[in-house]
Amino acid sequence: MSNPVLVCVFRGINAYETLAGVLEGLTQCREKLTTSGIFPQAVMALTPEVTFRQAILFFTEADFVTGGSGLKEHTYHSLQSLCFSFSVGERWRCRAESLFTYLHTGAQVLCTVLLIKPGVWSQNLARILRNLDLEKFTLVGMKHIDLEPAIALGLLPSEVKEDPAALEAHCTYLTSGTALVLCLQRPNAVKKLVDLLGPEDPNLAQALDPCLWRAQYGTSTVHNGFYGSKSYQMAVRDTKLFFPEGLCCAKCQMLEEEEV
C-alpha cells in the first residue's frame, strides 16, 4: 500500500496483442531502461470483461480522453487497462467522449469500400457475394465503373508510386476494363475486410493463409484481385468518392458524423 500505482487505459486495434508485446519487450530491456535496478511491475487486463471491471473501478466517464474519427474502428475488443506500480493520486480530469459506451454496445457499424478489379468480378461475382454474406457484410452500394487514371492513382499504395515501372503497370491494368465497386456495412467493417483480403502480394497471402482472398483470386502484385479501404479515414474518402449520390442503407452513426 505504500508504493505508488498508476492506472492507464489504452485504446487501439489489436490492443491486447500489441500491449502484451510491448510489455514483453520492456521486461526484456528492463536493465537498460533503469539505473536503479528497480523497474515497475505491470499488470494488464486480458479480456474485455476484466477491462470493463477495472475501468469502472478507477475511472469515471469524464476521465477518458479520445481522439477524432481515426478511432472509430477501435471497439469493444480494443479497450485495454494497464496497471503500473505507482500510487493512485489525483487524476487529471477532462470532459471528453466516454469509452464505456463502446464497452457496452460492442463494435460500431461502419461502411467500407471493396473494389473488385477488372477481369475478376465478371468471373467470380457470385462466389464473392456469397463469401461477403457469410462474413456478415451487408451490401449497401454497388456500381460498375471505368476508372480514370487520376482515381486509379489515388488507390495505389505509396510504395508503388515510388516505382515508375510498377506505377505504370498498376494504372494500365486498373484502367484496362470495368471494375465493380461495392460499399459494405457491418461492425468493424474496415478491419474485417482488410483481414479477409490479406497482403497486396498474392504469393505472400498464399504463404500466410490460402483462404485469404488475394491468395485465391490474385496472380501477381498488379493482378491481385481487389482494392479495399485500409483505414477508417480512407473508407470515408472512398465512400464519398464512389458513392456521392448516397447509399441504400439505414443511416448509421458513421454516415451521419461524416455526412456521407
From TrEMBL:
Alphabetical keyword list: Kinase, Transferase
Gene3D superfamilies cross-referenced by the UniProt entry: Nucleoside diphosphate kinase-like domain
PROSITE patterns linked to this entry: NDPK_LIKE (PS51374)
Source species, domain of life: Eukaryota
GO molecular function term, any single one: kinase activity
SMART domains assigned to the protein according to its UniProt record, in alphabetical order: NDK
Record domain Nucleoside diphosphate kinase-like: where: 109-249
InterPro entries in the record: NDK-like_dom (IPR034907), NDK-like_dom_sf (IPR036850), TXND_domain-containing (IPR051766)
Record keyword Kinase present: yes
Family stated for the protein in its record: Belongs to the NDK family.
Record PANTHER family: DYNEIN AXONEMAL ASSEMBLY FACTOR 8 (PTHR46135:SF4), NME/NM23 FAMILY MEMBER 8 (PTHR46135)
Name of the protein in question: NDK5 kinase
